[in-house]
Design brief:
With 580 residues, the chain is an alpha+beta fold. It contains 18 helices and 10 strands. The strands form 3 sheets. It has a 6-stranded mixed β-sheet, with helices on one face. A two-stranded antiparallel ribbon has the order 1-2. Strands 3-4 form a two-stranded antiparallel sheet. Helix 9 packs antiparallel against helix 10, helix 11 crosses helix 14 and helix 14 packs antiparallel against helix 15.
């Protein structure tokens, strides 16, 4: 009885540590109030988090209807919050429960991802045969220091749900070792359905893991293996199909960019081993990004970010060297090994090749170009245009294998000491990443336009027309203004013709809408905003040059009725905006 009591206390202590330490780290990064809508940061969130929040608040304000997740007033057409990365499953739950006024889904998901990240790595290590609690704890904490995971927290919150990838790997490893049971097949379906309502990019590694589990089941010739593999595939297909219909993947399914972005947002071939945002390599935070990082295409430093961190990398290299030497001495591995693990190796190889993509670079050297898809296929593949992300699953599996290898090959005390040292090195090396994320969340954004333009009594609850539309504007600073204004417009009960979505839903950029050339008629409540692209006259400002109801502000010009006298706006005379 005493042994049982002591064992239970150890279990409780372990569970508390794996839960509380990540929560405290989350508090250190963002503040423990980050899930609350009243948290200071959400008054004007930065970057892509502004449209995520705006779409969520628009969804919360609208009455229930079918399709459930579709909102109007963000663009000229209805759009599902699937395409604004507003975490539709969580948004639905908060709205249905009545907690939406108190809690924001983006902040709550960020908060929950910290303990879930650690617990999911613990689950993967257990599937690999690790039972020692100290090893599990150190491995779980190491997952919190995975550099690519920290990097997603700069603003792509839905993509910080890496625990989904870890759970998919867990199911695959457990299936390969013990069998693809009905419960594990259902687990793959549940993860696929969950990911469909969090971020579709997670579906690619889930599909790779499910396929590896099914193939392993058949290669090992387990009883009813083919049937179970087919069952798992069916569960995944129907879970995604039902979730896509419930969450309305039709409204907002605009242009993907096709094949144009393939090869740009890629992983460098040396990305996992070459330092990026590494303190030990001297790549410190400069207030915007990191000094001395490698970016061969201009899109690899962030979307292709895959450096494992010096602590994890050293452990992975040690495991790889020792195991390779052992395999050479044994003259290979058994057929049973290949039957069990070759599907997972193939899946991870496929994800790695896709992460490198159509244009391969080693350092800054361009190695090759593959033919890009075109037409309908380009639109489908182009939906995953930031394909450098697909190495995440491989990185997690390598780290988990290295932790399990340390547990298996070294004496317990030595192994724990090694893991503690790896954790310390990793914590130091990834400190610039945490510094950057903390700076982003240290406070709300600074308004990039005079707030009276959107917040006064004269301008709330009115329709807004931006020209050029969001995806037609070439200036990142102008895009920031549009994102901020969209959030204020939603909060003021107005509507907009353009919005930052994952798919391009704006009308063609040329020619400009002729309606913007005319003064607002009596009763016309529309406010036209023309972003100037840093020009004082001409360019985008040309079509409104003869209007008599326009006012200049910061980076643009606003035209419409009842704008006179608003702080921060300067009247523009007819013809003043004309010119080259």
């Amino acid at each position: 009885m005493r042994l049982q009591t002591r064992y239970s206390r150890e279990q409780i202590a372990f569970a508390v540590a794996v839960t509380i330490v990540p929560i405290l780290l989350c508090g250190f990064m963002f503040g423990l109030d980050i899930p609350l809508a009243r948290a200071r940061f959400w008054s004007l969130p930065k970057g892509d988090m502004a449209p995520m929040t705006a779409a969520w608040e628009a969804f919360l304000r609208q009455p229930w209807h079918w399709p459930l997740t579709t909102v109007t007033g963000l663009t000229e057409k209805p759009v599902s919050i699937v395409f604004t990365d507003s975490l539709p499953w969580l948004s639905l739950a908060l709205k249905a429960s009545g907690l939406g006024r108190l809690i924001t889904p983006v902040g709550l998901f960020l908060f929950l991802s910290y303990p879930l990240q650690a617990w999911s790595m613990v689950a993967l290590l257990r599937a690999l045969g690790v039972s020692d609690r100290w090893t599990l704890l150190l491995g779980g904490l190491l997952a919190l220091l995975f550099p690519a995971w920290i990097a997603r927290q700069f603003g792509h919150v839905a993509l910080s749900g890496h625990w989904i990838i870890l759970l998919a790997l867990t199911l695959t490893v457990a299936s390969a070792r013990e069998g693809l049971t009905l419960g594990r097949a259902l687990g793959f379906g549940a993860l696929a359905g969950l990911a469909t309502g969090i971020h579709a990019y997670h579906l690619v590694p889930i599909a790779a893991c499910a396929g590896a589990a099914a193939l392993s089941e058949m290669l090992q010739r387990r009883p009813e293996g083919a049937w179970r593999a087919l069952l798992a595939a069916g569960f995944v297909f129907w879970a995604v199909y039902l979730a896509m219909n419930i969450l309305d993947y039709r409204d907002g399914l605009g242009r993907t960019g096709g094949a144009a972005a393939l090869g740009f947002y890629s992983m460098n071939l040396v990305g996992p081993v070459w330092p990026q945002a590494s303190l030990l390599a001297g790549q410190t935070w400069n207030g915007e990004w990191y000094r001395g990082v490698l970016d061969a295409t201009g899109g690899q430093a962030f979307e292709g970010f895959q450096f494992l961190g010096f602590g994890a990398l050293l452990l992975v290299l040690a495991m790889t060297g020792v195991e390779t030497a052992d395999a050479v001495r044994r003259r290979g591995v058994s057929r049973a090994f290949w039957a069990r693990w070759s599907p997972l190796i193939l899946a991870m190889t496929g994800l790695t090749l896709w992460a490198v993509g159509w244009s391969a670079y080693a350092f800054k050297a361009h190695l090759y170009d593959l033919p890009r898809p075109s037409g309908r296929l380009a639109e489908i593949v182009g939906g995953f245009r930031a394909h450098g992300r697909f190495f995440w699953a491989v990185g997690y599996l390598l780290i988990a294998l290295a932790v399990a290898w340390t547990h298996r090959r070294l004496p317990r005390r030595t192994g724990l000491a090694v893991l503690a040292a790896v954790l310390a090195v990793q914590a130091v090396d990834t400190s610039p990443l945490r510094q950057g994320v903390r700076q982003v969340f240290a406070g709300p954004d600074v308004s990039a336009y005079p707030r009276a333009l959107t917040d006064s009594r004269a301008t709330v609850r009115r329709p807004w027309f931006f020209a050029p539309a969001y995806f037609c504007s070439p200036s990142q600073r102008d895009l920031r203004v549009i994102r901020q204004m969209n959030l204020a417009i939603v909060r003021g009960g107005g509507t907009s013709n353009t919005f930052a979505t994952a798919r391009g839903n704006d009308p063609p950029c040329d020619p400009p809408n002729p309606l913007i050339m005319q003064d607002a008629a009596p009763g016309d409540r529309r406010i036209t905003v023309v972003m100037s692209n840093q020009m004082k006259r001409g360019g985008f400002l040309g079509p409104i040059a003869q209007r008599r109801d326009c006012y200049r502000f910061g980076r643009g010009v606003a035209c419409g009725r009842d704008l006179a006298g608003l702080p921060g706006l300067t009247p523009v005379q007819p013809g003043e905006l004309a010119g080259p």
